[in-house]
Structure formats: C-alpha cells, structure tokens
C-alpha cells in the first residue's frame, strides 16, 4: 500500500512542533541509498513490518505525531491504479499502470480504474463516513489521490447514505500531467463520469487569481455553465506564499461558516 497520502494526512493532523512534522516529511536524497523516500514513508513501512499490519502502522504513526483525529485508509487491500491515456497526437490510447507513472504519460487521461476492481472497503472508514457531520472531498490530485479512494466499492455508497453535508473543494491550480487546462466544472465532470451517483451539497472554488503563478502552472477557472448546474461558493483561498496551494486557515474558515450556515452553530468545545 502506498503510504504517501497517509503520510500527508498524518502530518496535516499533527499537533506537535513544526520540526517533527518537517522530519516526518523529510525526503532523503538519492545518495542516501533509500531511493529518495521520505522518512515518514520509511517509518510507516517499518511499523508495518514490526506490527504486521498496515492498519496498526498508521495508528502508531499517528501516536508518534500526536495527531488530532484519525487517519483511515479506504481499503487495506493492495490495489493498483490504471489509467487510459490518450496520446498528444490524439490517435491512440494506452493503459498506464502505477500512481507515479500516470502523470508522466504526457497525454490526456480518459478514465481511471483500480485493479482488482472489488477490494473490500476498510470497515472503520465506512463507519466514520456514516457517522460524520461533514464530508469534505478534496483538494488533492484528482486522478491519483481523490478518485482512487472513491473507486473502492462501498465508499461512495457510504457517502451517499451518510446524513452529513458533502462539500467538494476544487483545486486552486491545475496539476501538470493530470489536470492541464481543467476548469472547475471539469473536476466535477470527471468524478461524475466515474461515479454517476455521487452528489455534493456545495462546491468550493477559489476566485482570487491575482498572485503570479510559476511558469507552467495555471489557475483552475470557473465557468458560467458550472454555476447553473451546481451550488457553488467562491472565496479567496490562495496561500500568499504558495499561490498554487490553498491557505488552509482561509479554507477551514469557509468550510466551517458554510456548515454552520446550513446546520446551525457548532459546539466548538
């Protein structure tokens, strides 16, 4: 099981000092003999061997980082991502396997699936979804982080069965190799293409396009047709230092405000 997204979720929930989080995210150089892996990935892998369980390794890593909350994988089965990619010449399509290989294919992703296609969902993850007050999907890599979890049988069914509000957070900027040229509506279109029965109560999009982006990075822009079909909320969400990312405090404030607007004040104790 790839630990990268799990590592990112763990560090995001860490309540410990910033240094510990930086250590967990630290990536060794190629000369270190560990193929450029991050320390967090190595720790999760080591704990998996020691405890004999990926599930327990994630839990123990959370204790090391003193996280607030829980990080739950969508499945404990070993699955592989496969994408059908259309070449730039638009003459042929090829199947590309592997999370790290898909963005490097250099074409337009037509569809994505997991192999095997029927892994069992992780029961605590399903239970957490069903018990949630709010479900937030995104931001993140559309094809290699968001969709793979939703493709696990039982996850979307749990989301649809949950009484929670469902928010989708659209990325601020496009991701090269995955969503080049995508607008806000394209992100939703891709999700609905793969999961026709999923529904979002609110879609949150950035509307601050003033900061200058690095060369080759493009804003994810809204469009009028999108606004006619969905409940959209626009806000300035960019990080002033890293404008291709969300300012997590601004985003959190918007999410809480929208939730309270629809369900009433939260008990913040």
Structural notes for this entry:
The chain is of the alpha/beta class. The protein contains ten helices and seven strands. It has helices at residues 4-12, 18-25, 39-51, 54-65, 123-131, 142-150, 155-161, 184-194, 224-229, 248-263, and strands at residues 80-86, 93-97, 108-115, 134-137, 165-169, 202-206, 232-235. It has a four-stranded parallel sheet with strand order 4-5-6-7, with helices on one face. α3 (39-51) packs across α4 (54-65) and α5 (123-131) packs parallel to α7.
Write the layout of secondary structure elements.
Elements: H1 4-12, H2 18-25, H3 39-51, H4 54-65, E1 80-86, E2 93-97, E3 108-115, H5 123-131, E4 134-137, H6 142-150, H7 155-161, E5 165-169, H8 184-194, E6 202-206, H9 224-229, E7 232-235, H10 248-263
Parallel strand pairs: 4-5, 5-6, 6-7
Antiparallel strand pairs: 1-2, 1-3
Strand order of the largest sheet: 4-5-6-7
- The end-to-end span amounts to 36 Å
What general outline do the C-alpha atoms trace?
A: globular
Strand content: 5-15%
Structural Rg:
19 Å
> Segments where pLDDT lies below 50 for 5+ residues?
none
Count of helical regions: 10
Summed over residues and divided by their number, the pLDDT gives a mean of 89
> Order of SSEs, N→C?
HHHHEEEHEHHEHEHEH
Which class of secondary structure composition applies to the elements?
A: alpha/beta
Task: Bin the helical content.
Answer: 25-40%
How many beta strands in the DSSP annotation? 7
Largest sheet: number of strands, sense, barrel closure: 4 strands, parallel
């Amino acid at each position: 099981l790839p630990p990268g997204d799990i590592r990112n979720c763990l560090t995001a929930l860490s309540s410990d000092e910033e240094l510990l989080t930086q250590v967990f995210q630290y990536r060794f150089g190629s000369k270190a003999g560990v193929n450029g892996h991050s320390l967090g990935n190595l720790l999760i892998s080591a704990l998996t061997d020691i405890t004999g369980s990926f599930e327990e390794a994630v839990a123990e890593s959370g204790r090391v980082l003193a996280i607030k909350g829980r990080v739950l994988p969508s499945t404990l089965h070993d699955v592989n991502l496969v994408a059908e990619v259309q070449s730039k010449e638009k003459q042929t399509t090829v199947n590309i396997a592997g999370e790290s290989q898909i963005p490097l294919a250099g074409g337009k992703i037509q569809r994505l699936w997991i192999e095997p296609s029927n892994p069992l969902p992780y029961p605590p993850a399903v239970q957490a979804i069903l018990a949630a007050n709010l479900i937030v999907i995104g931001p993140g890599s559309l094809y290699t982080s968001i969709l793979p979890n939703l493709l696990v049988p039982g996850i979307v069914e749990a989301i649809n069965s949950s009484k929670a509000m469902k928010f989708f957070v659209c990325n601020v900027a496009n991701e090269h190799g995955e969503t080049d040229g995508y607008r806000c509506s394209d992100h939703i279109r891709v999700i609905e293409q793969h999961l026709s029965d999923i529904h979002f109560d609110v879609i949150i999009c950035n509307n601050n396009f003033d900061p200058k982006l690095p060369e080759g990075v493009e804003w994810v822009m809204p469009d009028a047709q999108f606004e006619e079909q969905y409940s959209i909320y626009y806000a300035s969400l960019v990080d002033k230092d890293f404008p291709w990312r969300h300012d997590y405090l601004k985003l959190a404030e918007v999410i809480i405000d929208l939730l309270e607007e629809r369900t009433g004040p939260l008990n913040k104790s």
